[in-house]
Amino acid sequence: METTDLHMQILPFDYFTDQPDRTKGLVQLADQIVSLQSAPDGLTLLFDNGDFLQGNPLADLIAENGLHNAVHPMIGAFATLRYDAVALGNHEFNYGLAFLDEVLRNAPFSVVCANVDWQNSPACARPYVVLDREVICSDGQARAIRVGVLGLVPPQIMQWDHMALHGAVTASDMVQTARDLVPQIRQAGADIIVALCHTGIGADAYTHGMENAARPLAAIPSIDVVLTGHTHQTFTGTLHGKPAVGAGFSGNQLGLITLTLTHDAQGWRIADHDSRTLPASHDPPQSVAGQKIIADLDQHHARALARIRQPVAQTRQRLHSYFAPVLPDLPRQILAAAMTRYAKAALPADTLPLVTVVPPFRAGGKAGVCHYIDIPAGPINLRNVSAIYPYTDRPVILHRNGQQLRDWLEQAVSGYCRISPGKTGQPLLDPDFPAYMFDALFGLTYTIDLTQPARHDATGRIIAPGARRITELRHNGRDVAPDSRFAVVVNSYRAFGGGGYIPVPDCDILHQSQRQGRDILTDDLRNQALVDVQPQSIWQFASIPSATATFCSAPQACAHLYGPIRHIGPCENGFHTYEIDFAALALTQNAPYMVG
Q1: Residue 535 has pLDDT above 90, yes or no
Q2: If 0-12 CB within 10 Å is exposed, 13-18 middle and 19+ buried, where does residue 73 land?
Q3: First-to-final CA distance of the chain
Q4: Letter string b/e over residues 234-262, b meaning 16 or more CB atoms within 10 A of that residue's CB
Q5: Among 14, 48, 443, 465, which is least packed, fewest CB within 10 Å?
Q6: pLDDT at 586
Q7: CA 223 to CA 227: how far, in whole Å?
């Protein structure tokens, strides 16, 4: 059995919306896990594939307050459900190595991560473990079986958590590490090897340092089973003939691989296999284990609710992200203003002109129909602040020139599909690009011409070097020259190469904050007390004759239509389809969009 990318979603509760959500939560899988573990036939193993420690305000609260020798609630839940082994994901490193060591120090199960060298830091995980188990065979005899388990995490953790990990640990290529270790695991006596791969399916062809490498990992001889994660993708089937499963995210599914084994003088062999996922139950758990997890989390949950409901400021306008990245949105504008004010205070008074980079953090997509910001006019609470800025990144201020900013924007707009004049109903967004790739650069104005091809693919690779979608790139009404100089405020994840962007060299770093961006945003909103902003059309699509394109958003977006957008109707997974009219853009480009 596999869980993956739980992101501290233990209970069926959404801390960003302050509402129950029984479609997800580890506890909603508890009854199924317990039932499978208690089956009289065979042997059942339970693994988690990483990204369990960070992801919501409950996780942040626990990390901020520390454990004080108590058991972390996620570790307690894993122990209650009798996990056999757990792999580290990239988000395990977000709170720093000291906290990670404290969380895992007394974990009553194996923690594995093969391609991180802990150097002089405490080793929070082993490269692999060999589990000694016993299985009842069809002849009624119990036979010993040894299951090798190794964990792998994208080496990009060194970029994504550069400020916490640089000089403390190193991370190696996943595929090469597995190739080197698998023979050792066999020599250690493993009959079956399970790879806990905190990585997406990815390309079949291996390239060194690849982030999503499940396919080339599955091609390694002697790896028998592949569990995937990281991309929140659901997958069932085989990779290079090996049984594989990817169990979604936030506990919305349980991954299940069933192996039929035969035993003879040569040992164990996989005779047959089946891969599937089981959806989370929508009913309260009935098992003792499920009820214990809820009881153990009661005080943490109560403190988290009290925290997220604390008022920070008031807003005159409704703040939502239903149409980001399709049109400029107010949540990003508010975050950009806060980061710009922070940068002005952090830099000398005669500094370079400021540009602030902000992606849309919560804008649906693979994260689901509830993954949007929607703050009505009235109080802004801490949960709303966490929705606007859900991560633990810190601001970094960089030196960039005009050409570098133009290239940055070309990558940021590569996730739009190419639009042909005279055609209607064309897809607007490439599904391979997550919403957080669509950076907006506040402090500049620019137009996006979608009749041109995309320069980059979703990995950041340049596929059309001559593509030029960005036109009319200006600062204070003047064209941005290639050698113009700017100070650019960006989150640390992006600054050091997150999302396939080019990492910025240390020589171009003007300032690194020791404070999380969310804390800076919270203080900025408290200082304002009342948020009263008018939408800024910092960017716009170029008008395209007789062309429309469709995209998906939440059903609630129907109540907030504006500009050239109209509602089409329901589509799959609870989303609704909307249409943007590129010809009508010519009528709205000279006026700010009206945000409902």
Answers
A1: no
A2: buried
A3: 45
A4: bbbeebbebbbbbbbbbbbbbbbbebebe
A5: 465
A6: 57
A7: 11
* Tokens, residue 538: 């910092």
State residue 559's pLDDT score.
Answer: 94
* 3-state percent breakdown (helix, strand, coil) of the chain, nearest 5: 30, 30, 45
Q: Which residues lie below 8 Å from residue 195, measured CB to CB, with a gap of 6+?
A: 150, 152, 178, 217, 218, 223, 225, 226, 227
Nearest to 30 by CA among 40, 18, 22, 41: 22
pTM for this prediction: 0.91
Contact 592, 535 (CB under 8 A): yes
| Pair of tokens at residue 468 | 């030029």
% of the chain surpassing 70 pLDDT: 98
102-117 confidence digits (pLDDT tens)? 999 989 999 999 999 9
Structure tokens at 478: 């003047």
Nearest Cα neighbor of 364 from 340, 396, 392, 329 is: 329
CA angle 192, 195, 200 (to 5 degrees): 150
Task: Say whether 486 sits in a helix, a strand or coil.
Answer: strand
Structure tokens at 160: 């994504």
Residues 6+ away with beta carbon under 8 Å from 5:
49, 50, 51, 89, 229, 230, 232, 248, 249, 250
Predicted local distance difference test score (pLDDT) of residue 593: 41
- Cβ atoms 427, 450 nearer than 8 A: no
Q: Which of 227, 150, 134 has the alpha carbon at shortest distance from 183?
A: 150
Residue 190: name the closest of 221, 158, 222, 220 by CA. Answer: 222
